[in-house]
Sequence to fold (72 residues):
Amino acid sequence: MDKISVAYGNYIREHRKKIGLSQADVAKRLGISQQAYGRYEQGLREPTFSFIINISHILDYDPGEFFDNYRG
Fold:
């Protein structure tokens, strides 16, 4: 796990909870398993560019927002 993956996982978890979706809801919309999605939230899987874009549409945030605010 690297720091940015963990920080990004926490970031998407917060956004998901804020809009009231479950991990299963988000995973279904992404077309992946809940377990695979959970690995992103745990920081165990590094998000690809397409994942970042797709999930930003689902969770309704600007994909650059995280990186603008991430200070590592």
